[in-house]
Amino acid sequence: MSCSGLEQCIPFMRFDHFTGNEVTYIFTLIGLGCIPLICFGIGYILIQRRRRMGWDISYDDLSATAVDDDAPKDRYSIQAFEWLDECYVRQVIVEFAPGILTVRKPRGQILRKMIFPENADITVYHSEPNASTIHGPYCLIKLKKTHDLVLRLPSDKHLPEFLAALTLCLKKFDGRVTSIATPNEVLLEKAETKERRQQRLDHFFREAYARAFDQPKLSDATNREHDSDDILNQTITKSELAQAMGMRENDVFVERMFAVTSRTDSDVITFAEFLEVLKQFNEG
């Protein structure tokens, strides 16, 4: 048999979805790769928004059992969040004992202690009732000679318990608690946290040195418009003065410097008093 009379054989071919659709496949893969990035970006934005509201994702672990029912009668413990600035909050445990408020990490490490003196007059600014249907109220605790403490409680029902525990904490020392309902925005703006206090102190010393030694470059130009009233009313404590000088509070130089500078109050010195002493040093 001769093969010259047979039809030409067509090579075997399989169906391929990719052939002719190369551009479509490329854009499809790019789109699939962008989806995780978009989800990550949305999640990051939501987290930042919640933090600005004074919230953190770990709040989801808090429940109505935030109060420690097993604590002794003269002690009170509650889980809360400490508000440090617009972008940072942290979960803490707040404990009350007679004359002492302790802020701890959830694992027990002490973050801060507020020791109330006798006859202490404590002002507590708290959120207005039902200020938020999702999150609990803020509490701003002000104590002289230290930076403020800003807490966010689990819910509105914990606020009366918190204020009652603070009142009981001061009762043995003849202290008094004044509570004031305040809008959240005003409360957070009023708070002088550790970070904000440090910024004010930096501004305090820059302005003092700039005016005493006639060096305008040392002045903070960004705050110049609001400088007059704010800086003149600013005060610092002995411990803050010692820290700024890199010394201990009980050092002889700090004691004498503070004694020479302070005229109206033995616990704090004003900007005007500090500036006058610097000018005297400068003039010899």
UniProtKB/TrEMBL annotation:
<keyword id="KW-0812">Transmembrane</keyword>
<dbReference type="InterPro" id="IPR002048">
    <property type="entry name" value="EF_hand_dom"/>
</dbReference>
<keyword id="KW-0472">Membrane</keyword>
<protein>
    <recommendedName>
        <fullName>EF-hand domain-containing protein</fullName>
    </recommendedName>
</protein>
<dbReference type="InterPro" id="IPR011992">
    <property type="entry name" value="EF-hand-dom_pair"/>
</dbReference>
<dbReference type="GO" id="GO:0005509">
    <property type="term" value="F:calcium ion binding"/>
</dbReference>
<feature type="transmembrane region" description="Helical">
    <location>
        <begin position="23"/>
        <end position="47"/>
    </location>
</feature>
<keyword id="KW-1133">Transmembrane helix</keyword>
<feature type="domain" description="EF-hand">
    <location>
        <begin position="249"/>
        <end position="284"/>
    </location>
</feature>
